[in-house]
Specification:
Elements (H helix, E strand, L loop, with lengths): L2 H5 L4 E2 L11 H10 L5 H22 L3 E4 L7 H8 L5 H9 L1 H10 L9 E3 L6 E3 L2 E2 L10 H12 L3 E7 L1 H7 L1 E2 L13 H18 L3 E5 L9 H16 L5 E5 L8 H7 L4 E5 L4 H10 L3 E11 L9 H11 L3 E8 L18 H4 L5 H17 L5 H16 L6 H8 L12 H12 L16 H12 L4 H22 L16 H4 L3 E4 L6 E4 L2 E3 L3 E7 L6 H8 L7 E5 L1 H6 L9 H21 L4 E5 L14 H16 L7 E6 L8 H6 L4 E4 L7 H9 L4 E4 L12 H12 L20 H26 L1
Parallel strand pairs: 1-12, 2-6, 5-7, 6-8, 8-9, 9-10, 10-11, 11-12, 17-18, 18-19, 19-20, 20-21
Antiparallel strand pairs: 3-4, 13-16, 14-15
Helix pairs in contact: 2-3, 5-6, 7-9, 9-10, 13-15, 17-24, 19-20, 24-25, 28-29
Length: about 775
């Protein structure tokens, strides 16, 4: 028996699990409900079946405490808003009339009511619905979902731990509601919110909860003294309540820093820390505060955000050190497994050598259980597992699949000059305007058009051999002709080919670059029912041949208007992949940038005058601590310029970003040296336009006037009002008119109507400006 097992056996647990099911059953059921093909009861049955399946998978893997309450129809932050009664006034009637339909109205909006704003969950590609709060917000407890799901798990004979978003993080993620002063701080509502949390905790205790987990990931960010004081008050009050379960406060995505002593001293029974992201810092800080005497420490030693197998010996060394720093040490993944695919064994097409390096959610659960067993029984209990783990790690370290000498030589030869345009923007813009001859307030879209059932069927038929390549390409050409024709008739100024050939903005390129591995079933939730399959970046990157030139050139051959070439930028190619962890991210980014540079240069040589390199993940990937920003932004902006700097002055470079808080990186946006940037702005009511103006951003910008993440069709009057607001910050000669993001997930009827209204709005403002100038 080890010292750990002599005191208390180490327990294995996880904080959350993928929601969608092996075949994305949840997505299909929800979208069927939206379309009226699935009724509410059938949707609820599907959800209950998936929860039961998830819990059983975890139990079979050896997980002792399964999470409950982490399952969501759309988003767990939205679930928290419902739990505390923070339903916006404009949605209250819908929620009261039909709770489920009202829930989805908050997430997606209706034709008459706008949804909640959406943005990225910390530095991940998961999107959450931003709570809207104000000084008049009245909270009220509604624990029905959390209690019901706990009872489901307990009825299966499992030990379940409800998982709630913590009150401090919830308020820090919130924004002032529409009509509330912009300087209102939601954290001032903490004392009003805590009794509601206390009531939910009491309800869960009454329902059978021994422990409840409160997630506080916001505390791994830089926090002010006032915010740390709020955390102190929150856990003093909740910990001091008498009618409550034991409390486990969980942090992840980084080091706790100044928040660690706050939580270590709080009257709570347990603390969960991430020992994969800045793990050494958390270990050092934990020792500095004297550990967690008499308390439970849940150690996140298995990376919950990436898909590489765990290094058992390294994790056991960390766990061994932690044994002396807490009364009880348990083992977990570093964060919810929501951020990785479900099961690596489903990937039967991956090179076997690479497949042995991979661990998805099911495999990570087994890793957690294996480490817990070793911590309790000693390493002799896992001799076979340790041997297999060493062999797999050695296979990856020595594999020729991960290294290409030619790629490394080219990357090493990069100079500062390779990342600079031949002329400054002030000179380039004159050449571009003369060449493109665009009107004031030029209209465009972000790139993709609706991916219809026919397009998806054509791709599936090609994979199955039901049609040949020629037949598939004829279908793509037909779609491009239709998309170009619609844009010309609508009056859009800079066209796109619609990207009908692309399954995903990262996967499409990854499948054509060496070093990447694509999955067949590796779905991960991005938002709501939107799932992506992040490719695996396993080795050095190069581009064997052009990837987009054919389709862009074909589209350009159909029109006299400029057609944008569309690429995904190097930072986003990394952020939306499972990136290799055996070299610095900056080195990998330069490899991707050089591959994309070849594509940019080939597009220009083929006659493309406008090229958009999307970087929606630039802000998302920003480290959570300010001390880490400079190094990241240096290589991130360098890799973008390395991608784009080789073109002539008259070639206009665009970039695009969406659904993130941009105020923190306006200087970095400037440093990209793109000629035009388009950004999400519709849900945030043109906030980013003001941020650009406050910075003195000197280039052209298109803050979006059409929220594409909602099915509602914005009227021409709405778009006009947003444009007028944009013009308060950005001069007309530098303002573009466009949607927030690509249109892939929208249907054609709403797309047509929304873009027609967008063009109408641009024309109306042009007319007004012309009249004012005459």
């Amino acid at each position: 028996m080890t010292a750990q097992s002599a005191a208390a056996a180490a327990r294995a647990t996880v904080y959350g699990y993928p929601r969608q099911g092996r075949n994305r059953e949840l997505k299909k059921a929800i979208e069927g409900y939206w379309k009226g093909r699935v009724d509410a009861d059938a949707l609820r049955r599907t959800a209950a079946d998936l929860r039961r399946s998830n819990w059983q998978q975890l139990a079979d893997a050896g997980i002792h405490d399964v999470p409950s309450g982490d399952f969501s129809y759309y988003d767990h932050v939205l679930d928290t808003s419902v739990m505390v009664g923070a339903v916006p006034a404009r949605h209250r009637a819908a929620v009261d009339a039909d709770a489920l339909a009202g829930y989805f109205a908050m997430a997606r909006g209706t034709q008459d009511v706008a949804p909640l704003e959406m943005t990225k969950w910390f530095d991940t590609n998961y999107h959450y619905l931003v709570p809207e709060l104000g000084p008049d917000t009245v909270f009220a407890a509604d624990s029905a979902k959390q209690v019901a799901e706990l009872k489901e798990a307990l009825a299966l004979g499992l030990t379940a731990r409800p998982v709630l978003l913590g009150p401090v993080t919830y308020l820090l993620l919130a924004k002032p509601a529409p009509g509330v002063a912009a300087d209102f701080e939601p954290l001032t509502l903490l004392d009003r919110l805590l009794p509601v949390y206390a009531e939910v905790l009491a309800d869960l205790r009454a329902a059978g909860a021994d422990w409840v987990q409160l997630d506080e990931p916001a505390l791994v960010e830089d926090r002010t003294p006032a915010e740390l004081n709020a955390a102190t008050r929150a856990y003093r009050d909740l910990g001091g309540a008498t009618d409550r379960p034991k409390l486990l406060v969980a942090s992840y995505f980084g080091r706790l820093g100044d928040a660690l002593p706050v939580l270590a001293k709080a009257p709570i029974e347990g603390l969960a820390l991430d020992f994969t992201e800045s793990g050494a810092a958390n270990l050092e800080n934990l020792a500095a505060v004297g550990g967690l005497t008499g308390k439970r420490l849940v150690a996140g030693v298995v990376n919950g955000r990436n898909i590489w197998i765990n290094d058992f010996e390294k994790s056991l060394a960390t766990l061994g050190t932690l044994l002396g720093l807490a009364g009880q040490v348990d083992v977990s993944a570093s964060c919810s497994l929501l951020h990785v695919p479900l099961d690596a064994t489903a990937e039967t097409d991956i090179e076997p050598e690479i497949a042995r390096w991979l661990a998805f959610a099911r495999q990570k659960s087994t890793e957690v259980a294996t480490l817990a067993r070793a911590l309790t029984e000693g390493t002799g209990a896992i001799t076979a597992e340790l041997a297999a783990n060493r062999a797999a790690l050695a296979s990856r370290a020595d594999s020729a699949l991960t290294r290409d000498p030619a790629v490394r030589a080219r990357t090493a030869a990069v100079t500062d000059a390779d990342g600079r345009r031949s002329q400054p923007y002030a000179q380039r813009t004159t050449a571009q305007r003369a060449h493109l001859k665009l009107p004031l307030l030029p209209t465009t879209t972000i790139g993709s058009f609706p991916q219809t059932t026919e397009l998806r069927t054509a791709r599936a038929d090609l994979r199955k051999g039901l049609i040949d390549t020629a037949g598939y390409e004829e279908r793509i050409e037909e779609e491009i002709r239709d998309v170009l024709s619609f844009q010309e008739k609508t009056g859009i100024d800079v066209l796109v080919h619609g990207e009908p050939e692309r399954n995903d903005m990262v996967q499409y390129f990854a499948e054509q670059l060496t070093g990447y591995v694509a999955t067949r079933h590796g779905w991960v939730q991005s938002y709501g029912t939107r799932y992506v399959r992040p490719p695996v970046l396993a080795g050095d990157i190069s581009r064997p041949e052009p990837m987009t030139v054919r389709w862009t050139s074909y589209a350009q051959s159909l029109t006299d208007r400029p057609v944008k070439g569309m690429l995904t930028g190097p930072v986003t190619m990394l952020a939306w992949s499972f990136v290799r962890d055996d070299q610095p991210l900056g080195d990998t980014a330069r490899q991707v940038a050089l591959a994309l540079r070849d594509e940019v240069n080939d597009l220009e040589a083929a006659g493309t005058s406008v090229i958009q390199v999307d970087e929606p993940a630039l802000r998302e990937t920003l480290p959570l601590r300010a001390t880490d920003h400079a190094d990241y932004l240096a290589w991130a902006t360098e890799s973008f310029r390395l991608t784009t700097a080789g073109v002539r002055p008259k070639t206009q470079i665009h970039t695009h970003m969406c659904y993130a808080e941009f105020g923190d990186i306006v200087q970095a946006i400037d440093d990209l040296d793109a000629d035009v940037i388009s950004l999400e702005a519709a849900r945030s009511h043109m906030q980013v336009a003001g941020e650009l103006a406050a910075h003195g951003y000197p280039r052209e910008a298109g803050p979006g006037v059409y929220d594409i993440h909602s099915p509602r069709i914005p009227s021409a009057e709405e778009a006009t009002a947003l444009l007028r607001k944009g013009l308060e910050a950005i001069p007309a000669e530098r303002l573009w008119v466009n949607p927030d993001c690509g249109l892939k997930t929208r249907g054609w009827p709403e797309t047509r109507a929304s873009l027609e209204n967008l063009v109408t709005a641009a024309r109306e403002i042009r007319t007004q400006l012309a009249a004012e100038g005459s």
